[in-house]
Amino acid sequence: MNTLKMINTRNLFLSLMILAGFTASCEKEEINEVNNGRVIVTNVDTNRGGDDEEEPILYGIVEDGNGIKLQGAEVKIYPVGSSIPMDSQTTDSNGEFEMTVPVGNYYFKVTVSGVTTTTNSVNITADTNITIIV
After folding, report:
1. Which pLDDT score is estimated for 31?
2. What's the CATH code, domain 35-133?
3. 121, β-bridge pairs
């Protein structure tokens, strides 16, 4: 009987340790997310995109606060009010990316060197050039 009680106590202890480790890893991920990124619309081409036959193309550049283009940044686009990304791209050697999205309001999460930055929202109605500053 004591052996069974010791096994149950050990299993409970191990379960609590696993749960504590999972919780700590979740907390670490949240610490690495900031909400101060900005999206700046630099050009909207109203002659293309945004109609029933063609979805707008989003041309983007990711920069740091000093204007340095960031290569290898993961850019995810989300409809406002959703936590499910519509698309994900990685910036090229010039810090650029491209996405095709339906007309709508979106925000971005950009991950660079393990830090994720969430941006303000932007309304996409036609082909649009943006700069994301993280």
Report:
1. 46
2. 2.60.40.10
3. none
